[in-house]
Amino acid sequence: MDAVIKFTSQSQGRDRIFRAAQYACALSVYVLRNNTGRKELVAKLKGLEANVSAGRKLLRLGNTLNSIEAAKRTMQLSDRVLCLCLTAANINRALYFICDNVLWARSVGLIRDIDKERWSLNASRCYFFSLVMNLTRDVYVVLHLMMQRARDKQFRQKMDRYLSESPEVAEAVIPQLDALLFLLLESLKSHPAVALDTLKNICDLFIPLDRLGIYQSNAGVVGFCGLISSLIGIVTLAQPKLRIKP
Ligand SMILES: *[C@@H]1O[C@H](CO)[C@@H](O)[C@H](O)[C@H]1NC(C)=O
Q1: 226 touches 210 (CB < 8 A)
Q2: Domain boundary, last residue among 129, 151, 173
Q3: Is 229 a pocket residue for ligand 1 (Cβ < 6 Å)?
Q4: Which of 95, 126, 130 to mutate to test the pocket of ligand 1 (most atoms within 8 A of CB)?
Q5: pTM for the whole thing?
Q6: Which range marks the domain in which residue 219 is found?
Q7: Are 67 and 20 part of one and the same domain?
Q8: What does the pLDDT profile of the chain (246 residues) look like in tens digits?
């Protein structure tokens, strides 16, 4: 059991690189779709994308256990909001991987009589809920940081100076909004890990939104957002300082 968990956390880096490749293929297919001279290349890229996606499913077989372990850990967080958001996110992530594993088993012929479309939709639903809970956590952390900043005397002086010095602010319809925006940007700037996690989750959100028909974008948007989020995932794996905690 421990070995499975250890192996899957080690294969995370590989999965992120494959994920970036998968979305880069999807984006290229979208960009080249009307280029008649590139028909052969588009077909090759499509084949590559399908293969990478299938290969990633195999690598992800141990991820259910991993997510359950993560849920056990986050259940012990003392901050109630963080505990709730992250545990719900991890449980939904585990459910997502169960659907994903079932779909994999079907694709290799281990099981036959399941409704592929229904399991695929359920997978997207779980992934969507996991992301929404993660984003709720991000919003909570950002609000917390902004409140901390607003109470900080030194920071308030800096903000007052900024607000009185910039002429656009004097003309702004809602000066409070400007102050709020300043506070938000300063908080994100001083906590890049939170900013990156928020951006990653927002990018990821376009994938299930499109799949579930809640907000239909197109294959280009999905490919682009998936690529950006995968690249952020690689950066945060290589630079633990940029990874949000817990
Ligand atoms: C939600 O956040 C956790 C912890 O940061 C992460 O492990 C998980 O992959 C995220 N869920 C999704 C669906 O991205």
Answers
A1: no
A2: 129
A3: no
A4: 130
A5: 0.91
A6: 1-59+215-246
A7: no
A8: 788 777 777 788 889 999 999 999 999 999 999 999 999 999 999 999 999 999 998 888 889 999 999 999 999 999 999 999 999 999 999 999 999 999 999 998 999 999 999 999 999 999 999 999 999 999 999 999 999 999 999 998 988 888 887 766 556 666 788 889 999 999 999 999 999 999 999 999 999 999 999 999 999 999 999 999 999 999 999 999 999 998
Residue 134, ligand 1, Cβ within 6 A: yes
Provide φ and ψ at 208, rounded to 5°. -70, -30
Distance 28 CA to ligand 1 centre (A): 27
Residue 148 lies in a domain: no
Of 98, 129, 160, which residue sits at a domain end? Answer: 129
Structure tokens at 77: 């967080």
Same domain, yes or no: 89 and 52: no
d(CA 183, CA 53): 41
> 4 and 37: one domain?
yes
Alpha carbon distances (Å) from 162 to 60, 131, 183, 185: 49, 35, 11, 13
Ligand 1 close to Cβ of residue 127 (< 6 A): yes
Report whether residue 138 contacts ligand 1, using a CB cutoff of 6 Å: no
* Maximal C-alpha separation, the chain: 69
CA-proximal residue: ligand 1, atom 12 (nearest)? 131
- 31 shares its domain with 83: no
Count: domains in the chain: 2
* Element holding 209 (H helix, E strand): helix 192-211
The residue whose CA has the least distance to atom 14 of ligand 1 is 131
